Amino acid sequence: MAEQRMLGPDDVAVVIPALNEALRIREVVSGALAFCPHVIVVDDGSDDGTVDCIADLPVTVLRHARRSGKGQALRSGFAEAVRRGLRGVLTMDGDGQHAAADLPRLLACANRHPGCIVIGARLRKRASQPLLRRLANEFGDWGVAWGTHYQVADSQSGQRFYPAAVIAMRDIPGEDFVFEAQVLISAARQLGTRCVSVPIESRYRSADRDECFRPSHFRPLRDLTRITVHIVRLALRHGDVRRVHRRIRANPPLIDDGAGG
Predict the structure, then answer these.
(1) Which CATH class, in words, describes the domain spanning 11-205+215-249?
(2) The whole model's pTM is what?
């Protein structure tokens, strides 16, 4: 079988879910366009003029008439990328937390690890990450591991690369942030897909930064409760908790910083 051609920026789309992102959306989209010609913004019922801020930019805007949640926004973006015959999707949030400069690193990692989901893991300058958010992320990683049966570094990050086989999956359950966790689980169980994490810098509002970010839509207590309940039900349904625990311990996170390939 012929070796598959390496992925380039023309082969993928950048999907950006957006809910009331007028503050930073133009900067985010412009950064994505500098790397990739296929940018898909999914406006999830914004009422702050988010779409008006990018009306003159060469992007595809998909609009939800009412707020349907981040999960449905990602589904819409994935479906559009599949319709175009693209070979994968890069995702980033519309609030400016993710740097477009990291997109080439995620795509390069995807080429080093064909078929894997690549996560931009906020492992650099973690001291800038709010303590509650950092603890919540670590708890989320523990929970997702019970679904994937392997450990994941920063399973809650929204900056990711999804290969073609993953974005083509249908009937992935879960809404809002539960969907992002479930994608990892469904891909692991149905396709045997593994995650690889690329270290990126945490970008949050802080006293030593001039950057301004809107308050996060992620609510640690509410959303992690939903994610945890969802995953615990899956774990109990599949049974043999001790065997799963041994498997998780035997499969630590895969982290690729680009230095050793």
Answers:
(1) alpha beta
(2) 0.86
